[in-house]
Amino acid sequence: MMTGTTSPRTAASWLSVVAGVVFGLLLVLVCAGWLGMQDRGVVQPFPYNHAVHTAKAKCVLCHRGVRSGAHAGLPDLTICAQCHATAPGKHPSAEQKALWKKVVDGKEVPPWQRLYRLPEHVYFSHRRHVQIGGLACETCHGDMGKQRQPPRRALRKLKMRNCLGCHEEKHVTQDCTACHR
Questions:
Q1: How does pLDDT run across 38-75, given as a tens digit for each residue?
Q2: What sign has the CA pseudo-torsion 17, 19, 25, 30?
Q3: What CA–CA distance (Å, rounded) separates 134 from 170?
């Protein structure tokens, strides 16, 4: 005969099910939060095919500061506008078309997103490394010339061990204060 009480075995089973469901929900929430925090990389304002452009021009055409300063600089679209009358890409959005017009008319600067960043205490001169040292852009930046879409992340991580290895190989200063200021 059944009574109105639950056996300890049934209660334990239900407790296990509830604990499993709670644990599963917590696991889903943690994973969703983790995925939401993942770096999805940068999105550039316009599609840019480095492979097509580097076949005809050198990096310094767009990155003007490479030979003369610390920073290579980001492209000024007035250079692009010399060949491209309209926003690049097969199907530019209305937003891209409007931005292109503003940039070409000199009313706005293209909002390029940087891929390569060094810590603030690190000094790096593109002029010193490229113009004077003869370093190829690919040494630090990877083979951008093969990229058919703007990369969302740096092709190579800028690590101090890479810099030191190169300095050692080329027999140039390894004094900390040459780069760390």
A1: 567 899 988 889 999 999 888 988 898 999 999 998 88
A2: negative
A3: 11
Which helix (H) or strand (E) is 161 found in, with range?
A: helix 160-170
Helix segments in 2-133, DSSP class H: 8-37, 50-54, 77-81, 94-104, 126
Length of the chain measured in residues: 181
What is the value of pTM for the model shown?
Answer: 0.68
Tokens of 71: 């920073």
Would you put residue 171 in left (φ > 0), alpha (ψ -120 to 50) or beta? Answer: left
Please state, in angstroms and rounded to a whole number, the distance separating the CA atoms of residues 62 and 73.
8
What SS3 string covers 123-160?
CCCHHHHHHHCCCCHHHHHCCHHHCCCCCCCCCCCCCH
Q: Are 87 and 97 in contact (CB under 8 A)?
A: yes
Is residue 145 within 8 Å of residue 151, measured between CB atoms?
A: no
